[in-house]
Amino acid sequence: MSIAENVASVKSRIEKAARAAGRSPDEIVLVAATKTNSVEKVAEAIRAGVTVCGENRVQELLEKNALNAYAGSSLHFIGHLQKNKVRQLVGVCELIQSVDSLELLEMIDRQAELLGIMQEVLLEINIGGEASKSGMRETELPQILEKAGSLHSVFIRGLMAIPPISNSEGELRAYFARMRQLYVDNSSKKYDNISMDFLSMGMSGDFADAIAEGSNMVRVGSAIFGARVYPAKAD
User: Fold this and answer.
1) For 58-105, what is each residue's pLDDT tens digit?
2) Is the Cβ–Cβ distance between 180 and 201 less than 8 Å?
3) Please, what are the domains in the chain?
4) First to last CA, the chain
5) Residue 180 neighbours by CB distance under 10 Å
6) What are φ and ψ of residue 194, in 5° steps?
7) What is the DSSP letter of 178?
8) Which residues contact 193 (CB under 8 A, 6 or more apart)?
9) Helical H runs in the chain?
């Protein structure tokens, strides 16, 4: 299938999942995860109706952005953000989805202040408690939100999570449900720079379950572009 056909298929599946959950498909934001895909493929996805692209690597994002790869779409950063890359990223993308610590949030705030902008972010939760994954602990969130309320150049738009890998259908719904509860429990925080608008969870293999449990932003790569092909490493 072509990228355009894949985009149409993903949108159809999102609509079906949303309606099954008693929700409007218009509530769900599709983020095309464009990691390792060429400028031409990204452009093809945008022509097919993708309105948000998400990159995992800062260098790849910068290189593609210099070639206007994301023209016609919004740009999000969805990968692990190293602290030494903050200066390169802030102000380049509309939303940084993967802020996993207070220290990183404060660094983004300082860089955004230097640029005279407000950088929008999501806070990443390590919902599976996996040592191999980034993200803050669930129990850290209330305290970090309280401290974030005193910052002036970041705007927290919601939460993001990547649950543990599972090969069993429906197994991840418990993690998605916990994220939804965490999202709801912290949506009443009254700060000028915090607004819980987005719950970003669900990827190619599990976004229907994520939508069923309350996700309103899904990050889909292989279902749009096909299996990723990584460049061979030099000997």
Assistant:
1) 999 999 999 999 999 999 999 999 999 999 999 999 999 999 999 999
2) no
3) 3-225 (3.20.20.10)
4) 34
5) 18
6) -130, 125
7) H
8) 118, 148, 149, 151, 152, 154, 155, 156
9) 3-20, 39-47, 58-66, 86-89, 102-115, 141-148, 173-185, 207-212, 222-225
